[in-house]
Amino acid sequence: MKISIASDHRGFQLKERVKSLLTSLKIEVMDVGTYTADSCDYPDFAVLAIEKFLNRSVDSVILICGTGIGMSIVANKFKGVRAALCLNSQMAKMAREHNNANVLVLSANFTPEEEIEGILHNWLNCKFEGGRHERRVGKITEVERRNFISED
Predict the structure, then answer these.
(1) Residue 3 belongs to what H/E stretch?
(2) For this structure, is 65 an active site residue?
(3) pLDDT tens by residue, 108-136
(4) I need a surface site. Which of 53, 88, 96, 113 has the fewest CB within 10 A?
(5) Cis (ω within 30 of 0) for the bond into 34?
(6) Annotated catalytic residue: which of 40, 98, 121, 133?
């Protein structure tokens, strides 16, 4: 498995921890930045990580910013991306099993330290259940196809 990972300055320390945990699990990590805790703009790094996923260079993406909200908004602008902000392991499990989420978003400010390993475990090991959830994910895809966002 190969994962692209990105953060802004607020998420930098958590990104480094997550990279270490992933590497210990023998997962290849493609870090697209930021590489310091100096102030920066999260959309720049979210786009880099998502592009790796869309061109199939990686299997999944992890994005980290202060709240996780900004990274979630950016990621979900891309067709085919279902980014989920997960603050605990149960959210990660449900995001994968019920929503077929393909981008994990973490909050450096609000994710409890003791939840990080459980979140990663569930993200990496839980699979989409399909069934009734397939219908719902299909409806999300249909919304994407209709492209409700105005160009104005």
Answers:
(1) strand 2-7
(2) yes
(3) 999 999 999 999 999 999 999 999 999 99
(4) 113
(5) yes
(6) 98
Known active-site residue 40: no
pLDDT in tens, 45-84: 999 999 999 999 999 999 999 999 999 999 999 999 999 9
- Say which residue the tokens 């067709």 belong to: 79
Closest CA to 4 of 39, 68, 74, 55: 55
Q: Where are the domains of the chain?
A: 2-146
Tally of CB atoms within 10 A around 69: 14
Q: Among 9, 40, 65, 126, which one carries the catalytic annotation?
A: 65
Residue 7 bridge partners (DSSP):
64
CATH (one of 3.40.50.720, 3.40.30.10, 3.40.1400.10, 3.20.20.80) for 2-146: 3.40.1400.10
